[in-house]
Automatic annotation (TrEMBL):
UniProt source species: SAR86 cluster bacterium SAR86A
InterPro entries assigned to the protein according to its UniProt record, in alphabetical order: Flavodoxin/NO_synth (IPR008254), Flavodoxin_dom (IPR026816), Flavoprotein-like_sf (IPR029039), HemG (IPR044264), Protoporphyrinogen_IX_DH (IPR052200)
SUPFAM superfamilies membership: Flavoproteins
Keywords for the protein's UniProt record, in alphabetical order: Cell membrane, Flavoprotein, FMN, Membrane, Nucleotide-binding, Oxidoreductase, Porphyrin biosynthesis
Name used for this protein in its record: Protoporphyrinogen IX dehydrogenase [quinone]
One GO-annotated biological process of the protein: protoporphyrinogen IX biosynthetic process
Length: 167
């Protein structure tokens, strides 16, 4: 039986929710593990890595994990997906057009066999004060939502399901 591991890097938990949706579409054993738990990936047939953006950057632990495990990742079926609010814009919601996916590919020596990009979520009520107003400032500049009393989910779940089915 095939075994898949989904390794994720998330700040607020939305990337993990996307991982769970992907796992629900796969018809075999799937383990979902945070990159911060330093998962062992050798015994898996498929490796999917998902990561979110905060303030324009992926977390350093993502790059450390990939660098440490690149040889193993390259020998398996693999995929990468990025979760970022910029992808809420149609012109930036594809791997070829998303600036964070391009940046990721430049900053790592890994070339994933499959790449996806999904719009994320802004959960103003959940954020600490500094994050709330920093994100509001970024949203104002990028013509996004700025009402800090609300949560805005931009994820196209059909795109997530399609990604999972095509892995």
């Amino acid at each position: 039986m095939q075994k898949t591991i989904i390794v994720y890097s998330s700040v607020d938990g939305h990337t993990k929710e996307i991982c769970q949706k992907i796992a629900s579409q796969l018809e075999h054993q799937v383990d979902i593990v945070s990159v911060d738990d330093n998962p062992m990936i050798e015994d898996y047939d498929r490796i999917i890595i998902g990561a979110s953006i905060r303030y324009g950057k992926y977390r350093e632990s993502l790059f450390d994990f990939i660098d440490k495990n690149k040889n193993t990742i390259d020998t398996k079926k693999n995929a990468f997906f990025s979760v970022n609010v910029v992808a809420r814009k149609k012109e930036k919601n594809k791997p070829e057009t998303n600036p964070y996916v391009s940046k990721f590919l430049k900053n790592t020596n890994w070339i994933p066999k499959k790449i996806g990009v999904f719009a994320g979520k802004i959960d103003y009520p959940k954020y600490k004060l500094l994050d709330k107003y920093a994100i509001k400032f970024i949203m104002r500049i990028t013509k996004g939502p700025t009402d800090t009393s609300k949560t805005y989910e931009f994820t196209d779940w059909d795109m997530v399901i399609e990604f999972a089915r095509n892995i």
